[in-house]
Amino acid sequence: MKFSAQDLTVRYPGGGGPALDGVSMDVPPGCLYAVLGPNGSGKSTLMKVLLGVLAPASGAALVDERPAGAWSRRELARAVGVVPQAETIAFPLKVREMVAMGRYPHLGPLGSERDADRTAIARALEACDAADLAERDVMTLSGGELQRVRIARALAQEPRALVLDEPTASLDIRHEMAILELLRSSADAGMTVLVVTHGLDLAARFADRMLLLAKGRVAAEGVPGEVMRSSVLEEVYRWPIAVQEDPATGMPRVTPLRHSQGSSAELP
Amino acid sequence: MSRFGLGVLLLVVLAASVVLGVRFGSVDLSTAQVLTALTGGGAEWQRTIVVELRLPRMLLGALVGGGLALAGATFQALLRNPLAEPYILGISGGASVGAVLLLALGLAGAASWALPLAALAGALLAIVLVFSVATASGRSLDVRVLLLAGVVVAAFFSACIAFILSVSEARTVQSAVLWIMGSLAGATWASVGITAAYTLPTAALLLGLARPLNLMAIGEETAHYLGADVERVKRMALVLAALLTAAGVAVAGVIGFVGLVVPHGIRLLVGSDHRALLPLSFLGGATFLVLSDVVAQVVLAPTQVPVGVITAFVGVPLFLMLLRRSVAS
Fold first, then answer.
1. H or E stretch covering A85
2. Which candidate among A176, B2, B19, B220 keeps its CA 20 to 30 Å from the CA of B295?
3. Interface check B144 vs A, CB under 8 A
């Protein structure tokens, strides 16, 4: 499964400047691809265009060489599992029922669960270490547990790609790392994973490629080493930033500096 | 509790309530008298009471109650809020204006089958009004604004009804109490037939939307990504739920809170899977309204209390409790 954007431009009605402005990118199959950028830089918009929810004003968003908007909802749901940023859980719901929703695009006309569906649900719960939560009510889960269950729902779709919008926001270290390890192993198993995130350091450690957006434009794109440069980051985030090799991991680590610590970059 | 067990239990309680409703009222009859009347024997006034008055009244109560509860469960799924309900959203009020207008124009006698359609027009107008207010503040729907808009729109429709009733001849329309508090007293076999013809197929179509409604109850964006045709499901479900409300209001006036109380209770017992919630809400609504009507008839007998008074006495405390909980979270 691959995603590709070609010179995408998106405007929201009455929203001033373009939300995306000439964005091009390629997510090859089996790649863990991280989309980063400041608030309002167009990350979620790019995700929506690639998923065919939002039509671009110009340019093309392709999913496996086909325009995203040309896929039927059902077809796309069988190929791509999505974990949106937020959901409202207003009613009591068992974890297993929540994960079983991932089977919706696979169900036959009568809609009854078959063996293949039960297997997929069990596997997804297992992969997300959520099997023992199956009978719990979703409303009683902690943030980390809920996030694992939502990813399990996407895996139950048996997709060839996963798209996640800030899947680790507001999670503690243990849960954040567990989810990123899960995404990494999914990508290693051949799944294409597109993840929108704020976490530069962890993205650099887990992702194969990174896209840095600023005000709807591509500020940098490439392997983590190419994107994680202080000159690039300082311009995008408009804040003095140091990038050093982390002795524990050997990977680049971002440190935002205090005013008093000085920097070559101009302050906003 | 198992879904099947609850279904059987509700059927038993419904049947028992119908028996009670046929036996008790302004005049109490024994079971033997009822059975004699049903088989065509006994005094004529007893046959009239059982066959022409009480039996259609109980059946009408079952249809209206089932429809209102199913409509409530549907609005709750679409709005992801347990407080959504045809009466609270002002949709019942809109429906009643449509029906009263048709009656006041003197058109209903010629075409009583059209009464639910006039009510549907009013219900859809209410939906458009309420939703346009609730989405005016931004692109997303603010549920608190929605509820407030529903209350205000309902007040407006009440005023419309009072106005129409005050300028039309008293005999062309039934009492204002019927439209404002709801009553099953006008039940006839003809009204049972018309209500069934609108309610049963509409309910069946809604039950067919149970799976996509499960997804919608989590979020429209999520439902979309899971392969549901969100806009189509939403439009269909809104119109069908409006039609259920309209069919009920057209024959029984505005009966509030059935759509709030019943789905809430069913959810507590069997969870929120709409494949179970929707049919059980219909059954539960039928039972709740029939039982409420029995209470309404016997509590101050021979004076009849409008059934809407009973449902409100049950529904308002529950509404306040749910509101308190949703404000707190």
1. none
2. B2
3. no
pLDDT tens by residue, chain A, 268 residues? 999 999 999 988 876 788 999 999 999 999 999 999 998 899 999 999 999 999 999 999 999 999 999 999 999 999 999 999 878 788 889 999 999 999 999 987 667 788 999 999 999 999 988 999 999 999 899 888 999 999 999 999 999 999 999 998 878 898 899 899 999 999 999 999 999 999 999 999 999 999 999 999 999 999 999 999 999 999 999 999 999 998 998 889 999 998 776 555 454 4
Q: Looking at this protein, which amino acid is placed at residue B132? A: S
**Chain A residue with the nearest C-alpha to that of B78:** A90
Chain A and chain B share a number of CB contacts under 8 A equal to 70
Among left, alpha and beta (phi > 0; psi -120 to 50; other), residue A170 is left
Q: Which of A73, A78, A94 sits opposite B228 (nearest CB)?
A: A73
The string over A200-232, giving b where at least 16 C-beta atoms fall within 10 Å of a residue's C-beta and e elsewhere, is bbbbbbbbbbbbbbbbbbbbbbeebeebbebeb
The verdict on B82 touching A (C-beta cutoff 8 Å) is yes
CB-based contact A92 B218, cutoff 8 Å: no
Q: Tell me if A84 and B225 make a contact (CB, 8 A cut-off).
A: yes
With an 8 Å Cβ cutoff, are B218 and A98 in contact?
Answer: yes
- The structure tokens listed for A218 are 């591509």
Nearest CB partner across the interface for B215, out of A76, A84, A104: A104
Tell me which of A74, A76, A101 to substitute to probe the interface with B (most B C-beta atoms closer than 10 Å). A101
* B229 interface with A at CB cutoff 8 Å: yes
| Minimal C-alpha gap between B328 and chain A (Å) | 14
Bridge partners of A242, per DSSP, are A255
Q: What is the reported pTM?
A: 0.88
Between B80, B211, B273, which is nearest A104 by CB?
B211
**DSSP H helix total and E strand total for chain B:** 15, 0
Least Cα distance to A160 among A36, A26, A28 occurs for: A28
Q: If phi over 0 gives left and psi between -120 and 50 gives alpha, with beta otherwise, what is residue B27?
A: beta
CB count within 10 Å of CB A244 equals: 10
For the segment B30-49, what is each residue's pLDDT rounded down to a tens digit?
888 888 888 888 888 888 88
